[in-house]
Write a structure and sequence with these properties.
By secondary structure, the chain is mainly alpha-helical. 79% of the residues lie in helices and 0% in strands.
Length: 247
């Protein structure tokens, strides 16, 4: 009986997402990520000062999203409470000038949000970017493994080729520019940052072809900054600072 109720709930939710409210709900997700990304990227960059300012806008958008989802998805209350806890831990770490720990807590937030979308079959362009971040993180970790024991060389080469192919697919994938508030200028910026990421992967692949660990480790250092150049375009950095100034 519980299984049937779950199936009916999922079916009803799928239909709900197909109606006229779909754009409104996805817009709420986009707006959350616009507030979330500045805090996440400031944390990764070790900038506690800016992260402390950006959390105000994130907290505002989070409460908007949480209130909306609690009414719409009563079965996800536990997930929403976990997200609330991870955010609280991240804020505490930022306040304690520990951006590295904060970034780790925020990754949990990102994962939980991705899982919600996955459970209900919600297509979301940023999820492809978030998954790609995990791939380059693994490449970076393997390239800096002094003992070269994280994976076999053949596995590493396969992962590299796979990651390059994924990036090309992401660059070709269409996304709703209006939903993400990308005007013509910003779309051109996106193409440029995608090119920079492609070039970073190409240079990393060239270093890998020589199988020199030191050169490979050095080349890996450009992967995350290049990727963050893409991700930053989806965050509302100016808005988060303006919101802080108005508090």
């Amino acid at each position: 009986m519980k299984l049937l109720a779950r199936i009916l709930l999922l079916s009803g939710f799928t239909l709900f997402w197909g109606n006229c409210q779909t754009m409104e709900i996805r817009k709420a997700m986009v707006q959350f990520d616009q507030a979330f990304l500045p805090v996440l990227l400031y944390a990764y960059e070790g900038d506690s000062y800016q992260a402390k300012r950006a959390v105000f806008f994130l907290e505002f958008k989070w409460h908007q999203l949480k209130d909306q989802y609690q009414n719409m998805l009563p079965e996800e209350v536990e997930t929403l409470n976990r997200i609330d806890g991870w955010l609280g831990d991240a804020y505490y770490a930022i306040d304690a000038n520990n951006p590295g720990l904060a970034a780790n807590q925020l990754e949990h937030v990102k994962y939980e949000m991705m899982e919600i979308r996955h459970r209900y079959g919600v297509a979301y362009y940023l999820d492809g970017l978030y998954a790609f971040q995990s791939d380059i993180g693994l490449l970076h970790e393997a390239a800096n493994d002094e003992m070269l024991c994280l994976m076999e060389w053949g596995e590493f080469e396969h992962l590299l080729r796979q990651t390059q192919a994924k990036w090309e697919a992401l660059c070709e994938q269409a996304f709703d520019a209006e939903l993400y508030e990308f005007d013509a200028k910003k779309q051109q910026q996106l193409k440029e940052e995608q090119r920079v990421m492609r070039e970073a992967l190409s240079q990393f692949a060239e270093a890998a072809s020589y199988a020199n660990r030191l050169d490979l480790a050095q080349a890996s250092s450009s992967l995350q900054p290049a990727f963050f150049g893409v991700l930053k375009l989806f965050g509302s950095f100016e808005t988060s600072q303006t919101y802080f100034a108005l508090q």
